[in-house]
Amino acid sequence: MQSSLTLKRETSTDAARKYFRSRYHDVAEADWKLDRQLRAYHYVEKHIASFEEASLAISSSKQATIGRQVNLALFRFFSHATDEQVVNEPPPEIMVAAAKEHEND
To answer: Which residue, of 4, 51, 94, 102, is most buried by count of CB atoms within 10 Å of its CB?
Structure first.
């Protein structure tokens, strides 16, 4: 069995940009989608303790797993928010509440 590719943090953004640009003909759209994915990722990194306390994530020192509910809440915010709203991201309590709205989906 072959192990998966591991990228250094410095090159991972470049690799992701290349991937997104290969999937979308419009470079601006590809870059926008990548930006939103990265912002969602960094949001989870920054607020993982809040998601863990709400039993919506499991994390260790090396990795984290978030639940479907968190994915849906992140999508609802990061795919529809304006650029200004994304810069002024909501506090984790709001994202946790949004995730809990999906508990019975």
So the answer is: 51
